[in-house]
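Q: what sequence does this backbone want?
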């Protein structure tokens, strides 16, 4: 068997071997599934989707093939296609909350707020004590509604279960949205001290530092967030406006 150099993320030789095997024996399911997974690793998303489709044409109920197809669609920003396939998988899964969470992210990237909330509601119904579900629901409510008290309840419950810095960020963000900037600071500091440097977190923390009268720190953090190139257009706009107001 051709070697897969995982240390250097070199799957090319194995992909070539699997491709030849798939062409010779397209009805061999396991090698074909492995080829889809390797193509995804190599960012050959179109090829991965095509092979997953060929597997599903023979075995339409094969869970792994449909999941890998959805993954390829997500990577190609075909969020509608991913939502269709993930929905089919969730209906057949006894613990569908993780799938509904992925669906909520796909809907968010598609800009479909209604579908995002629908998926989050289903995730919450399936796993009301899951910290990621609680976290994402809290963030949605704080971002798209004025149900801040409920958002804070969910965020703090998530933080009581899991101390991950992304949850600390969410609690801080909910408090920021409520105008409780001093209270938000401790949560942002906790995430920062855990070496969390996600660009969206940096945006949240930088904006809060500005609100509590720490312009020097706010400027440093907001510039770092902007330099990442990963903020949304709205976050970029707000960051630049804040920096302008601080004379940066």
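A:
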């Amino acid at each position: 068997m051709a070697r897969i150099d995982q240390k250097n993320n070199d799957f090319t030789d194995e992909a070539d071997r699997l491709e030849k095997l798939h062409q010779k024996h397209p009805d061999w399911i396991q090698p074909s599934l492995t080829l889809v997974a390797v193509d995804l690793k190599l960012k050959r998303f179109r090829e991965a989707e095509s092979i997953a489709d060929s597997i599903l044409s023979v075995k339409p109920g094969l869970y792994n093939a449909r999941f890998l197809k959805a993954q390829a669609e997500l990577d190609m920003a075909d969020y509608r296609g991913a939502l269709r396939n993930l929905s089919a998988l969730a209906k057949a899964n006894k613990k569908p909350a993780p799938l509904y969470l992925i669906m909520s992210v796909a809907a968010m990237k598609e800009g479909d707020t209604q579908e995002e909330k629908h998926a989050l509601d289903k995730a919450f119904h399936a796993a009301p004590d899951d910290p990621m579900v609680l976290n994402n629901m809290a963030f949605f409510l704080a971002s798209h509604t004025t149900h801040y008290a409920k958002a804070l309840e969910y965020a703090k419950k998530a933080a009581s279960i899991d101390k991950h810095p992304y949850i600390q960020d969410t609690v801080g963000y909910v408090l920021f949205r409520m105008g409780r900037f001093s209270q938000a600071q401790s949560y942002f500091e906790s995430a920062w001290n855990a070496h969390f440097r996600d660009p969206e977190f940096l945006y949240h923390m930088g904006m809060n530092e500005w609100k509590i009268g720490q312009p020097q720190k706010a400027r440093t953090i907001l510039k770092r967030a902007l330099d990442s190139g990963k903020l949304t257009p709205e976050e970029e706009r707000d960051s630049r406006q804040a920096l302008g107001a601080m004379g940066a």
